[in-house]
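Example record

The entry below shows one chain as it appears in the dataset: sequence first, then structure tokens.
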Amino acid sequence: MSHKIAIIGKGNVGQALAVGLRKAGHEIRFASTDPREPVDAAAEWGDVVILAVPWTAHGSIAKAVGKRVDGKTVVDVSNIMTPSYDLAIGFSTSGAEELQKLLPRAHVVKAFNTVFAQTMRTGRMHGETLTVFVAGDNLKSKQAVRNLAEYIGFDSVDAGPLKSARYLEPLGMLNITLGYGLKMGTDIGVRLVKKAA
């Protein structure tokens, strides 16, 4: 089943997701701060809205889209970090949970923040299928995002309720630390090895 997917943000993450999702047959429309690509119009058009922007932009985007995302799946791809690459929120909440408060009638799902952008085109690295962890409170929206990840080529894992973003966001930070802080580069990824169903 193809979807109309609005991607807010035209950086490396947004562009890479667009490549993977277009290959799977989905229709993509970008939105940004450019007035020719208004955020509100894209949010109204999309069945699914992906926020591929820094988490500090969530407030302004939520204000711009308003009720246009009510009842829709909103995917939070962001890493919740300070300018010095430290985790900005944690323990008692998460960036995704705070986004849900800003968009109370949307179905926020946390996903894709634990993989680097270049893997978002195929879901693979060095011949291995990588894992995308998907957390959310709405089962239908969470399954829709799992399907999108699998269409790209990832293995998807249900990571539980949106509260699990409190664990996924630090995992994303570990990935960044390994890649940049410890100089492993971005040609790395996480795969969950599990017993076949």
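Notes for this example: Residues 10 and 104 are 25 Å apart (CA to CA). The chain has six helices and nine strands.
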